[in-house]
Amino acid sequence: MRTFRRVTAEVVALVVAGVVFLIPFSFMLLTAVKDSVQAAELDFSWPTSWPIVANIAEVVSARDYVLLRAYLNTTVLTVGSVAITVVFAAMAAFVLQRRAGRIGALANFLVLSGLIIPPAIVPTIWLLQALGLFKTMPGLILVEVAFGLSFAVLLFRAFIAGIPRELDEAAMIDGCTGLSLFFRVIFPLLRPVTITVILTMSVTVFNDFVNPLYFLPGDENATVQVTLYNFQSQYSTEWNLLFMDIVLITIPPLLAFVFFNRKIVAGMTAGAVKG
């Protein structure tokens, strides 16, 4: 009886997942490869023609190849944000885990506050303007780092809790200083959770729409999600081009999830067990 209930629950879950995710995605793909006349019908019919290359070329060349510039901007933003977050989150988590005390408790409270308190857009813009970083890529990278740092610190700290302190003492006896201890001994052991942080934050930054819209306005600084918003207003009636643009933007995070979902789950699970 329990086996029957479990199988029934799994079947229901698969059906719900198919309805919620697979059907809309299939509709998007079918519409993206149709011509403009057939795409205007917005149905599940099989394409009578396959102008895939023409649709891709028109989407890429739209608005003076803004999509290519957006991919470049998004790549710079993602790589810079993730690299800074990984290094600083791992270092902060190591210190917080190894040095408990009043200052550590205050730091933990601030880390949790970063997850709970919603970001304030206007004060952040004022701060960036005061620093001369508003409407600049370095400023947006710092914003993404600030918003993603708390989650990364929690993951790293949970994983570091499972690393014995005796390893630190042995390295210090061998002459390691604080930085060399971290980068030569501790950081290589954080590979599973580092992969998890890299993948989860890469997808988050790549799909971010609000922060680039507020903190990096302008077509020359556009990211892929912002171009999708502008593309929708320009091609609101040409559904095949609109859905093709969505497909081109969806491909990178989708591939990252398909190929690395096990590593993401493994990193989070290892941190949870060792914490």
TrEMBL record:
It comes from Acrocarpospora phusangensis. InterPro entries: MetI-like, MetI-like_sf. Keywords: Cell membrane, Membrane, Transmembrane, Transmembrane helix, Transport. The keyword Transmembrane applies. Gene3D superfamilies: MetI-like. Belongs to the binding-protein-dependent transport system permease family. SUPFAM superfamilies: MetI-like. GO terms for cellular component: plasma membrane. One of its GO terms (biological process) is transmembrane transport. This is Sugar ABC transporter permease. The chain crosses the membrane at residues 12-33, 70-96, 103-128, 140-160, 181-206, 239-260. Residues 71-260 form the ABC transmembrane type-1 domain. It is found in: Cell membrane. It is a multi-pass membrane protein.
